[in-house]
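subagent[fold] <- orchestrator: predict structure for attached chain, return tokens only, no commentary.
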Amino acid sequence: MTKYLLQYPLGRWFTGQTGEVLRPTKPFRFAVQAYQADTAKHWRETVRCAEDLGYSALHLADHYFGPGPVQEATGHPVQTLAAIPAMAAAAEATTTIKIGCRVLCVDYHQPAVLAKEAATLDLLSDGRLELGLGAGWIRAEYEAMGVRWDDASVRIARLAEVVELVKAHFSGEPIHVAGRHVQVRDYTGAPPPVQKPRPPIMIGGGAEKVLSLAGREADIVSLNFDNSSGRLGAQSVQGSLASQTATKIGWIKQAAGSRFEDIELEIGAYFTAVTAGGDSTRDRVEEMASGFGLPPADLADHPHVLVGSVEEIADRLLQRRERYGISYVTVSDRTMRQFGPVVSKLAGS
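subagent[fold] -> orchestrator:
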């Protein structure tokens, strides 16, 4: 594969599988995802730690079930905090870190209320909101909460209309959204956005329809597993290897057209371990690979996995940015401290 290292104000260009120049790279950014706390003090300490370590953003998730059959059926950890009030508390406890959610399930929120809440969060955070939106994926949670579960095509169409509403709410113009799922009219959104023209919108997912929507509409595209099974586990990991990630980037690029170079690509490093390097890295990769039923080489190259010393992880991230254009990486609050030296080394570069 021929490499093209052309200069561009935002950084180097990254190359596709066939060697074609795709777009300029973005500077690295890093985020923490956290959604559990035992006390208010615990939550404030978590978000302040993320800020002090140099992370760009603090993201929650948007799940509502507690311990019980739903959690056992889905394999998803229990989320103790509701996203929107926890985002507000995080904004109040910090001064610079961006506040968001990977991602708010639009089916769990009345659309006009969600748009108003987003505008309020942007105001109360002094313009630090990153608004993540998604179509939902845990059918068992929907059913447990009494929320109607529709086919993916319907949920994604509804997500598209909510995105339209949010953009209209932030536009400063009278809102008129007359969709199949969202009907809002006859007022102008308030408060006006602190960020201009509006807060960045992140759309996340792992399948073609939702990533194509993200390519058309989002400022940040969050790459995820294909969670159509409604359960986390080895199947999700096995179905999101490097080759599948390249395909996902292709879907985004095709849908985005000329705006592709403006999109920031984000991914969750769900399986992260900082080691001493060398043999310890190899041993940890082999251990994790065995648990997921993958060859060690596939696990080490997995886009949602970061295992190695600080230098090894930094090199891996540079390679992935060149290969895919992914410059925005999110880690769990459980690993944010050990991952901090990687943030110090790469953030902004």
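orchestrator: received. Logging for downstream: The CA atoms of residues 137 and 228 lie 6 Å apart. DSSP finds 13 helices and 15 strands in the chain.
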